[in-house]
Design goal:
With 209 residues, this protein is mostly helical. 51% of the residues lie in helices and 6% in strands.
Length: 209
């Protein structure tokens, strides 16, 4: 708007998408749904621009824990199954009706490169439980659907961005291949390694054989 902001407006093209009709009496319900959609959209835009987590939060996320007599498995960064879960969650955070086992499962299976037989419904159920107990999703009352929480969106975006935008594209730069392509990141690490070796040499510390 006026080159300074993004204006968002909600339009219902077909109220039947929300299990209702065009009758005027349903307008309050549609307004309520529209408000929910707007809030989720604004939350997504806000978190996507600032999805950092503290070191304490990252440690807590990745370590198994026990609360109220219940064991809560950790969600380790870098684990293929966990990263697939995080990646898939990013595609559902905007849906006001949430997600279900059968809707999330094909997405996770595809990201893992597995068939639906290999990534069964029970495995998806276990992963949903892990996500719920760690506070990344919350069950919608009286349903088998889940909403992605603000914390879950922050975790999913952070971990997915780290993998897709930093680690995956830049990891080859750290490999000692003989190609002549300039690798600024590799050169920086080699310079760092050389400086560390020099410090150790000056301190008369040598690596054991």
């Amino acid at each position: 708007k006026e080159g300074r902001g993004l204006r968002s407006e909600v339009t219902f093209n077909d109220p039947r998408d929300f299990a209702t009709s065009k009758a005027l009496k349903n307008l309050p319900f549609l307004r309520s749904v529209g408000d929910q959609i707007n809030r989720r959209l604004l939350e997504s835009e806000r978190v996507s621009h600032n999805c950092a987590l503290s070191q304490q939060a990252l440690d807590r996320l990745q370590r198994p824990k026990r609360e109220q007599g219940q064991r809560i498995p950790g969600l380790r960064f870098g684990d293929p199954r966990v990263m697939a879960l995080f990646h898939a969650l990013c595609g559902f955070e905007h849906l006001h009706r949430g997600l279900r086992n059968r809707e999330l499962r094909p997405q996770v299976a595809a990201l893992l490169g597995k068939t639906l037989d290999e990534y069964s419904s029970s495995k998806m159920g276990y992963d949903l439980r892990r996500l719920r107990l760690n506070g990344l999703i919350a069950r919608i009352p009286t349903t088998h659907r889940y909403n992605v929480t603000s914390y879950g969106l922050r975790v999913a975006l952070l971990c997915t961005k780290l993998l897709l935008r930093i680690l995956r594209p830049n990891w080859p730069a750290l490999l000692a291949d003989p190609d002549p392509i300039p690798r600024p990141l590799r050169n920086a690490f080699l310079n760092l390694e050389a400086e560390i070796d020099k410090i150790c040499e000056d301190a008369r510390l040598r690596a054991t054989a």
